[in-house]
Design a protein that fits this description.
heterodimer; A: 299 residues; Glutaconate Coenzyme A-transferase; eight-stranded mixed sheet; 12 helices; 11 strands; B: 251 residues; two-stranded antiparallel ribbon; 7 helices; globular
Chain lengths: 299, 251
């Protein structure tokens, strides 16, 4: 159980200013609890990398001044903090390097397998290839295949200093079990120099070992585990709770200016000393509603 | 006469492209409605696939894009690399949404205006660039066609159509077949087999060629025998609306 830490310590011991971070978590499972703690501890200048995950978390972290660079495939049309910064042309507050979902997945795969690059058949001919931001010349390269006379694009490895994911279950050895869509969560985790799992529930390793096909990620490659009930709220956690659409809607509405977003942060993040007090603030009635309609119910 | 539901005309027209037993790779947003509707109407045994690795979900109603319930009762939940790198290449057809489409079917879902100083940040590629590059064939769905949304050249080329014209995809080594049609809330467009330019194939009920030309940034041609998109029957409309009881995609 040596890897088990409180949330506050996990952030303090592992994330430093200027680090590169990725939030895995495709079918819900986004570790909002970890993102909130980054904000509470005033972590700065992070680079956010993603293969199809964490778009709302990016909006939160960019709005809160935690993240100032992103290597991603997409933001959302309702990413109001990101949009306010990008459309206000404040590139020092946030600079984006646009890739595609497959390209970012391949970049994580290359890092995980310690390969110098991955060839990719998409991106060619597009502005993703032509227009470059802070990654510059190293964003995408093009070569002749040494095997056949064809041109291929290459993308560089992407190895985040820290990868965080919320999981339904983790056992005392840190083995991770998930439920729901997985996207590129596997390669995102494998690419991380440090892997942190926040988990809803601690289970006995006897359960894991009876059904090893169902282990999503091995504990031997997990650096820190934090047990955080409601750790993915307001995203969904299949089998535990649904997305909190009302909460997300309010967060979105209150992200319409720096000032009003700051007030939201004061209320929900700075104003709660840890995730347990955030959950308490949500209130029992709300939590009960979220629990009552969830996807992937067993049985 | 009651008002025409042009969004429904568009979605149902696009759904007709999907046949029985097709594997349909769906992008985010409206494409889900197109594929679901096709599956529940005429395209029996068609199979939905998406970039998050969801294989053949048993969907009965539309849900929010990011909701993991999308994957419930699916045949398999595989990885994004499996989905975009492997499953996509053999799927029969892909359906993609777009915010801007140009003369050669290139689409933009990233920014409006200059990339470094945009007036609007839309979203980005997600898997759209991969789908447009790699799919055997794909169709584009663009709601709310109006001036500026069909420029001669997109502000930012997120996903490749035929790029600059004939042979351009081949020169870039893009393996997919490129776009075959664009469905908007005003018309259906196809691509000329030689010039690879978009032309008007079919106008929705009550829309004129002049209406369409007002929106396009170049003088778009029309098919010699310009068609009229059929008005959905009450039964078709009922089915479509029954698939989105919570109005996630439909008004």
């Amino acid at each position: 159980m040596g890897k088990f830490l409180p949330l506050e310590k996990a952030v303090k011991n592992i994330v430093v200013d200027g680090a590169t971070i990725a939030f895995a978590g495709s079918g819900g499972r986004a570790s909002y609890s970890f993102a909130y703690e980054l904000i509470r501890q005033h972590i700065q200048h992070l680079t956010f990398c993603s293969a199809g995950t964490g778009a709302v978390i990016l909006d939160l972290l960019a709005g809160a001044g935690v993240v100032d660079r992103a290597e991603i495939a997409f933001t959302l049309t309702n990413s109001r903090n990101v949009r306010r910064i990008i459309e206000g042309h404040r590139s020092r507050r946030l600079a984006i390097e646009d890739y595609s979902n497959l390209a970012m997945s391949f970049r994580f795969m290359a890092a995980a397998l310690d390969l110098p690059f991955m060839p990719i058949r998409s991106l060619r001919g597009s502005d993703i290839e032509r227009r470059r931001g802070f990654v510059g010349d190293h964003k995408i390269k093009e070569v002749m295949s040494p095997f056949l006379s064809e041109r291929v694009a290459l993308v560089p490895p992407c190895s985040p200093d820290v990868v965080v994911m919320h999981a339904q279950e983790v056992d005392e050895d840190g083995n991770v079990r998930v439920v729901g869509p997985v996207g590129s969560d596997d390669w995102t985790l494998k690419a991380g120099k440090k892997v942190i799992i926040t988990a809803e529930k601690l289970i006995d390793s006897k359960i894991t070992r009876k059904d090893p096909n169902n282990s999503f990620f091995p504990g031997i490659r997990v650096d820190a585990v934090v047990i955080v009930p409601w750790g993915a709220h307001p995203s969904a956690l299949p089998r535990f709770y649904r997305s909190d659409y009302e909460f997300l809607k309010e967060l979105n509405q209150r992200s319409d200016s720096d000032r009003s977003f700051r007030k939201w942060l004061d209320e929900w993040v700075y104003g709660t000393k840890d995730h347990a007090s955030y959950v308490a603030k949500l209130g029992k009635t709300r939590l009960q509603t979220l629990k009552s309609v969830t996807s992937f119910k067993s049985g | 006469m009651t008002r025409v539901d042009y969004k429904a005309v568009m979605l149902i027209a696009a759904a007709r492209r999907i046949s029985k037993g097709n594997e349909v790779f769906v992008g985010m947003g409206l494409p889900i409605m197109v594929a679901m509707y096709a599956q529940k109407s005429h395209a029996t045994h068609s199979v939905l696939l998406n970039e998050y690795g969801i294989v053949d979900p048993m969907m009965h109603e539309a849900i929010e894009v990011a909701d993991p319930a999308f994957g419930e009762r699916s045949a398999q939940l595989c990885s994004m690399i499996d989905a975009l790198g492997w499953l996509l290449r053999r799927a029969d057809i892909a359906v993609l949404g777009a915010a801007q489409v140009d003369r050669y079917g290139n689409s933009n879902s990233t920014v409006i205006g200059d990339y470094r100083k945009p007036s609007l940040r839309i979203a980005g590629s997600g898997g759209a660039n991969d789908i447009a590059s790699l799919a055997r064939s794909f169709v584009l769905i663009m709601d709310k066609q109006r001036p500026g949304k069909m420029p001669e050249r997109v502000d930012y080329l997120t996903s490749p159509g035929f790029l600059d014209g004939p042979q351009a995809r081949e020169r870039c080594g893009l393996p997919g077949g490129g776009p075959e049609a664009v469905y908007t809330d005003k018309a259906v467009y196809k691509f000329h087999p030689v010039t690879k330019e978009l032309f008007v194939q079919s106008l929705h009920p009550g829309i004129t060629l002049a209406d369409v030309r007002k929106d396009t940034g170049w003088k778009i041609s029309a098919a010699p025998k310009l068609l009229r998109t059929p008005l959905p029957t009450p039964g078709e409309l009922r089915l479509l609306r029954s698939l989105d009881p919570n109005h996630v995609y439909l008004d």
